[in-house]
Structure to design on (1372 residues):
């Protein structure tokens, strides 16, 4: 079975495994206060062109989201996101469990627009009973989105300007950041994101690491005491160096970008194969996730050798998801393409 | 610098590193639903002599504690523990952050007695205003305790009987479980603990793993829907197999016990060296943590080559902590013993 | 200015004021353990034809909702309601602040159907990743709804049967219960509601009392320790007798029903006046709230002497709300009707 | 039975009952935005000599405490208080239910000293693992304390200076404020308290009102968006005017002080009677609560006609509590004194 149902079916890039092995018996202080974490943070700050940023290494995405959001919001505040946003749809109410409502705004492709956010804010404050309603006080976006789509530099700039004007933080979930940055449709750099957002995270779990996400807090206002929050939510890894070492490796010699490019190229090939076959795509994704709409028969056929995810009904077809990753083998994609051709 | 300040300064047993390397490019389903997790759970259930137990693999101890406790308690309920209990003293209010008061009871050596728990329960229900007071509704013990001490089989049995009589769960934090089980003073087996407690966890982070704890829920009443709680608190590892594989390794051929014995024996040597030197021990610990009370001068001298933890003032001396672990080298302990002799 | 913008602009029925005055210097135990509370609870249980029900007197509606919901749900569970439900729209995230997601389902008139609930439950458990999604675990309905509409006995029975089949509680918010029960379109009695729901509350604040809601818990499963929850959320009134005395008065000689009938009759007159004038009604409400769609000019004219609430845009008109209550004077309604006629 | 077990066994001062009756059918806007609330707030700000203070009217003390504390603290922060503090001992974990640990410091008489707070803060920040410990970030004091004792102006000033130096809020629970202010041992005015604290509340429930507490926020930093928090916690009274009207009455012509003096004088008489009889007092209280230590026999005898509260064992005696209030009748106290004499 070739597993393309998600981008976390395999371990880590060999460079990480090698360094884990190599450094295994070294003695270091715990809780992220070791040389590997310091070095990785330096590399990331450089990548962000922002020497003042704070970098925290965490284990997973849901954890990172709930930590940052609950660290920043006051009890009566909520976070706006697309209704498809991971925090709204797939984190078992992790944000609500910290006391905050997720304010889901409708979205066709998974992105939010500055206009939507502005209207939500304006409507809130125009309502004479606004104290009876959760205050919209943060914007959460994902890049790429859960649907594989991207924000352009213009779109993210517009959101950022609005958020700064209204003094609310803009937070970007980069679980698949590499696959967004390396898309041929993308015009944003990591430094752009660091500059435009108040905080964001660089996904490792889905992009080359065994596990791990690097939270980058760029706005001084949201930096204070974050390590207490980490510990309180059970998110401070005892052997923090495991995270530092992984990100240090990923941000050495552009490895993070190289492995991301690999995944995006393979995804493009899969996409092309479906298009050639006139199989419609549910979302117009230029990244590592592809969402073809298959007939019952096509679905059955492809399931024989490939694992993929069911997404939703799409008329009389079924939208499904194929993911590539840093680890996907070209030959497996070739086999899939042949399979698609022969449908 | 020889680091003996904690038992998580190094990586994992070589067997784990080898299997991680070996299995790195395998494709498995995510979130703990893979063969490694299934196999590890089977081994643990066998170790516990309890085929019906539920086993969940989590990343860290604070996380495991907050998950289980918040999964079980209703909003008005609190958890009793020794005032030195990790949940009371060193988890940044993780339990309170889920809404529950930690009810700290005084303890000299880090253990709770059935008598204390009984008196707390009786006093609560005798108070005519008990509805104005947090309801004591769970017992948390650690084995070994934060002070390195142990419960005897008789003591744990007494606690267990009381808890069952009053219908409140008994939960055991086994962050250093191996070091407790392999102590020469110990008369409990893992199966005893499984039988006497409603849930407990087997520590991996401090006992041979890179990271990871195995939560064992033995009482059916507390099993339902635990995986939802895991996801909600950001504790469900995407590549769950990393945990499964580690515990599978630790519970193959008694590795967990072997490496624990190693640490406990070295700790005993350190203890003997301090005793021979007439340096008092702050706690009477038969496990891998030792707490000598050093003079200023002794502390200064030992700090030159060894890292250890400051514990507290002890009269005109200072109680400090030396930890051994599965990874501690005999030669390093020999050097320390020489150093102690020459004080 | 004649205030018809809400049903809580005035004090209490004179009978309550008289008894408050009369009993003012009596000495009673606190926290709801007095004769007035006991007597009121007895009257309500009789009204519900359910001697085993638990009755708790609370101060307000948001408070009652958040208490009952958080008392019953486990951390990963959410409560389904119409998107217009008070807990979703007008309680500043009170339910989320206790850690639970409100699962808002679309609704045209403010009611939920058994079909919707069934589909939500079925979709949840059919999803292979359901542990990543908040578990739908309670149904919240309001009677009358926030739009003035009602559930028929058949509809509520269907919801109740579904909930029992799936073992999830059905909770009814009766902030305006009297105005629902006394509507000429209603076919439910309080005893029906008690029998069909697992808990509900009888609104006092909007129906004759200075303040106060009577929560009736009918299912044994949800009764335990509720008074602890009351105290914890700051909802246990020190001089609880103030609540007991008010409900005791309201449920003496059918006063609650009489005053409710008064309000509903006046609302019917207002409704008829708008209909005669061919002014469309935004919701088809047979209770004390009426929602005419006014032109700019009509709105301006009526604002001169009457206070009413703005609801929403309705095409090129504006939906607004007029409320009657137990306290509304017939002559004020007559004046309003004349005003409407002359529009 | 003459009830002296608490200071909330009776209704309200007759002036309040009269105004409630008088204004009953007036129509006002809801949620505290009416003329009575505005007027009461003005009177209180004048009393505090602080025109910029924010005044919020709430229903009860536990509610007021949990609202202010949770409004101000970030998730990893806790509130220091005497171990006897109401928030620690008698609010069913209300503060913990909002996610924050109560950091209880030992106290003999119910007061905290600046020295204790300073040591707690210093110890916290001196600990190299302080991120693993709840951050002490607020000081809660009660005036009078739960034991009837008082802070002097010098003591409160010292606490205030320390808190300002360390930038943490000082919050004062004034459930019995009047009884403290009118004690002959007191040297603080309400304006002093307003000046020295960042927020405090003026108790109404125990001092002349049917119910109600007036929260005064004096530090601009803690004022923002408080009404959202009120609504979210179910604490915003629909007919807010009921609170405004009560406080408006209490702060007209010094009524609050007059009725407080009455209670304190009667308590003094009770105290003198016990002292004359050589019955020891458990706490040295100059306010409306008195804590004699009775023998079994004395307790039995006094219970025949008087209700009082059991406090705790005191050697072979029993500490009990007698409370006077604004409503206590002189003749009842005379009868009690005779009873004491004849013991």
């Amino acid at each position: 079975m070739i597993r393309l149902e998600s981008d976390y079916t395999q371990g880590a890039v060999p460079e990480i495994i090698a360094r884990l092995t190599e450094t295994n018996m070294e003695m270091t202080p715990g809780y992220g206060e070791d040389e590997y974490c310091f070095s990785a943070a330096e590399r990331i700050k450089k990548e962000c062109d922002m020497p003042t940023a704070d970098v925290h290494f965490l284990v997973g995405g849901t954890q990172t989201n709930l930590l940052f959001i609950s660290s920043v919001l006051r009890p009566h505040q909520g976070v706006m996101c697309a209704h498809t946003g991971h925090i709204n749809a797939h984190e078992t109410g992790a944000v609500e469990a910290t006391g905050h409502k997720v304010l889901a705004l409708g979205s066709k492709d998974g992105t939010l627009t500055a206009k939507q956010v502005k209207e939500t804010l304006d409507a809130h404050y125009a309502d004479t009973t606004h104290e009876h309603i959760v205050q919209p006080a943060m914007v959460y976006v994902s890049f790429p989105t859960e649907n594989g789509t991207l924000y352009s530099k213009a779109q993210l700039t517009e959101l950022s300007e609005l958020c700064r004007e209204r003094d609310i933080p803009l937070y970007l979930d980069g679980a698949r950041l590499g696959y967004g940055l390396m898309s041929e449709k993308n015009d944003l750099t990591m430094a752009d994101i660091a500059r435009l957002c108040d905080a964001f995270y660089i996904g490792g779990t889905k992009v080359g690491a065994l596990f791990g996400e690097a939270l980058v807090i760029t706005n001084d206002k949201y930096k204070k005491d974050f390590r207490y929050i980490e510990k309180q939510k059970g998110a401070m890894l005892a052997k923090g160096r495991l995270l530092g070492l992984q990100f240090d490796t990923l941000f050495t010699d552009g490895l993070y970008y190289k492995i991301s490019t690999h995944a995006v190229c393979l995804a493009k090939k899969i996409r092309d194969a479906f298009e050639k076959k006139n199989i419609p795509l549910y979302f117009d994704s230029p990244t590592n996730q592809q969402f073809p709409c298959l007939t019952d028969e096509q679905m059955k056929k492809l399931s024989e050798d490939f694992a993929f995810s069911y997404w939703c009904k799409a008329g009389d077809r079924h939208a499904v998801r194929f993911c590539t990753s840093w680890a996907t083998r070209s030959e497996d994609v070739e086999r899939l393409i042949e399979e698609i051709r022969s449908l």
About this structure: Chain D has two domains: 2-7+255-341, 15-250. Chain D touches chain A through 19 residues (CB under 8 Å).
